[in-house]
Specification:
single chain; 321 residues; alpha+beta; Endonuclease, Chain A; ph1033 like fold; 8-stranded mixed beta sheet; 16 strands; 30% helix
Length: 321
C-alpha cells in the first residue's frame, strides 16, 4: 500500500499521474490560467470546480480553461461552495491543499497525501460523483469569459456578491410546462435569426443543440429568468408527460406580437439525446423537497440551493454518465 506525504513535489506527481491515468475524477475549488498544462484530463473524465460568478470575477476560475476541458470531452460541473482538493487517478488519490494554478505551483506552500488505499479511493470517487449536479455547458462557459479578471485581487471574496437580482451568483432552477404552438411568419423569422446567433455559442455540437420556447407577457419565467439559469421542461409525448433534463438559458429575445402583447423567446442549450423522467416519478421527487401545489401545468422557480441540487442530481442518479 502507498501512503506518501507530498510537499515540494505535489505538482510533479499530479501532472505525471494525470497524464498516465486511464480515468480521472477531480474536485478542486479553483482552476487558474494555465491549469490544463498542470492537470491533464481526457474524454469522459469528471471535473468539479467552483464556477460561480464570484470565482470568475476574482480570477480564481478561468472560463478559458473550462472551455478547453469541455472541448476535450471532460464532464465539468460547478459547485459554488466547493473548497475541496481531491484528485483521483485510476487507483490512486491525492488529497491536499492545492488548487490548479501556477500560483499554487510556483508561490504557495502546499501539502497533500498520496494513497492507493482502496477504501479511500472508493470514498473519494463517491464524494466527487455526489457533486455532479450542476453541469457547465460550453456556451455558458464561453459567455462568462468576459467576466474573468485574471489580475483582480479582492480583499474579501464576499465583496463580489452583488445585491442586484439580475446579477445572481448562483443560477436559479425553473420548472415549467410547455405546449406545442403555432408561430406566425414574423415570429419564425425572429426565432430563426436568434437561433443562428445562439448556435454560434455551442462548442460541443455532438452533445448539445439549441432549444427555443415562447412565453407570454404574464409568465414569471419571462420576467425573472436570467442567463445561466436552468429550465426543466414538462412536455407531453404520445399522451404521456415527461420531465426533460435541465437545460441552460443562453439567450432571450423580447418582442411584441401584432396585437401589441409582450412576448419572450428563450433559447436554451439542450442535451442532444435527453434522458427523460416520467411525470409521476418526478412529482414524487418534488414532494420529497416539500414543493407545494404540484400540478402538471406548474411553473415554479427553485432558488433554495439544497432543493435545486437535489432535483438536478436526479438525472445523475437515474442515468449513467
Amino acid at each position: 500500500m502507498i501512503n506518501k506525504f507530498l510537499q515540494n513535489n505535489i505538482w510533479s506527481e499530479i501532472t505525471s499521474l494525470s497524464k498516465k491515468s486511464n480515468r480521472s475524477y477531480v474536485a478542486v475549488a479553483y482552476l487558474g490560467t494555465g491549469a490544463s498544462k498542470l492537470l491533464h484530463l481526457k474524454n469522459s473524465d469528471i471535473l468539479i470546480v467552483n464556477f460561480s460568478l464570484a470565482a470568475i470575477r476574482s480570477g480564481q476560475t478561468s472560463p478559458e480553461e473550462i472551455i478547453h476541458y469541455i472541448s476535450k470531452g471532460v464532464k465539468v460541473y460547478s459547485c459554488s461552495n466547493l473548497h475541496s482538493k481531491v484528485f483521483v487517478f485510476d487507483n490512486k488519490v491525492i488529497i491536499g491543499s492545492s488548487n490548479v494554478s501556477n500560483n499554487s505551483k510556483n508561490n504557495l506552500v502546499e501539502s497533500a497525501i498520496l494513497t492507493n488505499d482502496k477504501n479511500v479511493v472508493a470514498s473519494s470517487i463517491g464524494f466527487i460523483f455526489s457533486l455532479t449536479n450542476e453541469h457547465i455547458t460550453p456556451a455558458y462557459a464561453k459567455k462568462l469569459k468576459k467576466d474573468y479578471k485574471k489580475d483582480y485581487k479582492p480583499s474579501f471574496l464576499n465583496k463580489l456578491t452583488s445585491k442586484n437580482k439580475s446579477d445572481r451568483i448562483s443560477p436559479t432552477l425553473w420548472i415549467c410546462r410547455i405546449f406545442d404552438a403555432e408561430f406566425e411568419d414574423y415570429e419564425n423569422k425572429i426565432c430563426s435569426t436568434e437561433e443562428k446567433k445562439a448556435k454560434k455559442k455551442i462548442i460541443n455540437k455532438k452533445e448539445f443543440i439549441i432549444g427555443s420556447i415562447r412565453f407570454g407577457s404574464k409568465s414569471t419565467i419571462s420576467k425573472n429568468s436570467r442567463f445561466g439559469d436552468f429550465i426543466i421542461y414538462l412536455y407531453k409525448e404520445n399522451g404521456k408527460l415527461f420531465a426533460y433534463p435541465p437545460a441552460r438559458i443562453i439567450s432571450k429575445r423580447n418582442y411584441k406580437s401584432k396585437k401589441g402583447n409582450n412576448r419572450t423567446l428563450i433559447f436554451t442549450e439542450d442535451a442532444k439525446n435527453p434522458n427523460t423522467i416520467d411525470w409521476k416519478l418526478f412529482s414524487t421527487i418534488l414532494k420529497k423537497i416539500g414543493t407545494h401545489r404540484i400540478s402538471e401545468n406548474m411553473t415554479r422557480e427553485i432558488r433554495n440551493v439544497n432543493s435545486k441540487q437535489f432535483i438536478l442530481g436526479q438525472w445523475k442518479s437515474l442515468f449513467s454518465h
